[in-house]
């Protein structure tokens, strides 16, 4: 089993509000920084994204990739890589847990990345940590701003 990196943050909003921002792929370029374009290619019966194309520009890493999403109830979404130019694997998830009587949400982001170019495991874990921390900080700011 591949190693993964995970981190958590508490957001001052109900889980439904947090998941609403996570599920709104069209607006990712407004708050994620690295995602320059997001296009939902397929949706499930509930209207949630099943397949999303993302154009990523994270400095040294520029990629156009497609992810397949799986929604587990209203408190978890996970994804796996369908195709990419630079990545061999990109698997992750957001898990939400209510806190503070449902007025706050504990968000746990887990990520496993494997690139096609050779890279030391230590450097890969550090890159995953940076991606996770930036994503969680952006998510927190976006949700708490009410945008």
In short:
This protein is α+β, with helices and mostly antiparallel strands and about 150 residues long. It has three helices and seven strands.
Description:
It is a single chain. The protein is an alpha+beta fold and 147 residues long. The protein is built from three helices and seven strands; from the N terminus they run E-H-H-E-E-E-E-E-E-H. A seven-stranded antiparallel β-sheet has the order 1-7-6-5-4-3-2, covered by helices on one side. Helix 1 (15-23) packs across helix 3. It is globular, with a radius of gyration of 15 Å.
Name a few traits of the molecule.
single chain, 147 residues, alpha+beta, 7 strands
Biggest sheet features = 7 strands, antiparallel
- What percent strand? over 45%
Series of H and E elements? EHHEEEEEEH
Class by helix and strand content?
A: alpha+beta
What is the overall silhouette?
globular
> Helical percent range?
25-40%
| Low-confidence spans | none
Instruction: Calculate the terminal CA-CA distance, rounded to whole Å.
Output: 38 Å
Count of beta strands = 7
Mean of residue pLDDT values: 88
The total of helices stands at 3
Strand order within the widest beta sheet: 1-7-6-5-4-3-2
Radius of gyration: 15 Å
Helix/strand layout:
Layout: E1 5-11, H1 15-23, H2 28-31, E2 35-43, E3 49-58, E4 61-72, E5 76-83, E6 87-99, E7 104-115, H3 121-145
Helix pairs in contact: 1-3
């Amino acid at each position: 089993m591949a190693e993964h990196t995970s981190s958590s943050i508490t957001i001052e909003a109900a889980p439904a509000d947090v998941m609403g921002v996570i599920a709104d792929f069209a607006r990712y370029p407004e708050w994620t920084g690295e995602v320059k374009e997001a296009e939902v290619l397929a949706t499930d019966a509930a209207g949630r994204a099943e397949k999303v194309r993302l154009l990523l520009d994270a400095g040294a890493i520029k990629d156009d990739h497609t992810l397949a999403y799986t929604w587990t109830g209203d408190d978890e979404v996970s994804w796996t890589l369908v195709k990419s130019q630079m990545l061999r694997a990109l698997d992750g998830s957001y898990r939400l847990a209510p806190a503070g009587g449902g007025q706050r949400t504990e968000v746990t982001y887990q990520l496993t990345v494997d690139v096609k170019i050779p890279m030391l495991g230590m450097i890969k874990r550090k890159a995953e940590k940076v991606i996770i921390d930036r994503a969680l900080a952006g998510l927190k700011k976006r949700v708490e701003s009410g945008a």
